[in-house]
Amino acid sequence: MNLWFGEKHILKNISLDFESNEISAIIGPSGCGKSTLIRTLNRMNDLIPETRITGGVLLDGQDIRQEHDVVTLRTKVGMVFQRPNPFPKSIFENVAYGLRVQGISNRREIADRVENTLKAAALWDEVKGNLNQNAFQLSGGQQQRLCIARALAVKPEVILFDEPCSALDPISTARIEELLLKLKISYTIIIVTHNMQQAARVADKTAFLLMGEMIEVGATSQIFKQPKDKRTEDYITGRFG
Q1: Which backbone phi and psi does 187 adopt, to 5 degrees?
Q2: Residues of the chain whose pLDDT is less than 70?
């Protein structure tokens, strides 16, 4: 896959597989194309004028730009952003939002799905008595877990995380990482991170991106302990980036 914004060639000859029930981390210095790559996977770059893509992105063997409309695609490929972005609604309605968009109206079904999803996001015990509370009253870490719950509610296959812990304190970061390890049992997870230790802790596979090129992809232990490309070693050891 190649991607351009106007005349600027952002992603260059990217070839990469993401496996089911694994966490794949994408690492690389600022401006290397990590966020652009992950946003390509649910067509968020379609919103940027003069975006041009060659090659394809396949989900279950189907090209997401040919076989899926955007709404259906984003049901299958959810996304959690760098900063928590809850809707200005109650905790309950944040999680229920996607269900209502899907046309689900049965109150009992919605309530059950909200509860189960908040449990899956490790938030239920903290909020079960205050589901009508405005989501903005939650802490930053709780808001991020609420956003994860909102993504989970529509039962995606893949969840994209774009530096989900960069705005969080170490305790909240640890809780999100624990949650990721639990979620991979049921989902395919792709995470962009600047945090080398985070990638080493949670990822099964790591891909190193530099100036829009995929330099090296491999098992996380191999990438961090025995990188095959000197540029990977230089980045991981802090010589640049």
Answers
A1: -135, 160
A2: 241
Burial 77-110 (b: 16+ CB within 10 A, else e): bbbbbeebebeeebbbbbbbebbeeeeeeeeeeb
Who's near 37: CB < 8 A, 6+ residues apart?
11, 14, 26, 192, 209
CA separation for the pair 178, 183 (Å, rounded): 9
Cα separation, 108 vs 114, in Å, equals 10
Helix 140-152 to helix 91-101 angle (10° resolution) is 20
pLDDT at 198: 95
Q: Work out whether the CA dihedral 223, 225, 228, 231 comes out positive or negative.
A: positive
Say how far apart CA 241 and CA 210 lie, in whole Å.
Answer: 10
> Is 2-85+156-236 in CATH node 3.40.50.300?
yes
Q: What is the pLDDT of residue 241?
A: 60
